[in-house]
Amino acid sequence: MESGEKFMRWALDLARYGRGTASPNPMVGAVVVSDGEIVGEGYHRVPGRPHAEAAALRDAGELASGADLYVNLEPCCHHGRTPPCTEEIIESGVVRVFAAMVDPNPRVAGRGLSRLREAGVQVETGLLEDEAQRLNEAYTKYIGSGMPFVTLKMAMTLDGKIATRTGDSRWISGDEARKWVHRQRAASDAVLVGIGTARSDDPRLTCRLPECPESAQPLRVIADSLARLPAGARLLWEAPERPVLVACTGDAPQGRLEKLRYAGAQVETFQSRPDGDGLDLKSLLHGLAAREITSVLCEGGGELAHGLVFSGLVDSIVIFLAGKLIGGRDAPTPLQGAGVDSMDEVLELCDMEIDRVGEDLRITARIPPMEGES
To answer: What pLDDT sits at residue 59?
Structure first.
């Protein structure tokens, strides 16, 4: 099975080429193997284009007959934007299919594998399944819960500050950490910040790495309950062709909404929090999912981060820890808000990992689902 792992890892590597462009579809790669050699390969690029299996089979041509197919996700068996991959696999003459994981989409969910078996194709599942699950965790959550996968990114100093008391935060993290953020923007369907960050930092929220394709630029979302984003904000006029969504509540003054629309922003009204104090973040994320947003990168600030974390809406946290000290009782911290009253109420993180990125330490962790969440 060692050679099988090699081929499945190649399929996983191919799948990653679809990061940032394949959504809302999953990232899928496939390789056709004959006599221990790869004779065809492919990956899913964008919705509406051939799926990975179809691309790999067409690359292999007649060499697919009698060959094995390695794919990181169960082949589809239904008509969507493209024909079912199962039928093309059967017609190609492939004799064995190795699928790393079953597709959680109810339209597939084992039916693709069953169709292949019915046609006499040998099917095996589970090879590098954990890696395959991790690769498409945003897709899996989106399909299973109707909510996007949320990653919270924070950069702070060793004394836990995200800016000075005057609000200056450029730059806490180093060059390599900032490059990681740009890559993560390209990999995410949307980037989310609060109105405080939008006003104080005046960010662009785009991926500015030269290798980033235009199709990988994220939707930029501002949580702005009262429509306080200035019409002259950089993210509106420096990249007007890239969409900006200003998420407001019904309390936002109509005049401000019209100014933002005139400046090119998409303005949408969402529910207020039950206590009436600001935007209901779960309503916002449901609204983003309705736009086929499967993954969201939240870049701050502290109030928004607190609201997401303590509402059970964050799946993954990435903290860049810089070897710098700011000090000051009024300097902001990554999580503002009210916080908890006692240590019995703290959120325990899991799957914590620490590595070095340039000058900074990167800490990644998961937040287990809160009680009552799934």
So the answer is: 96
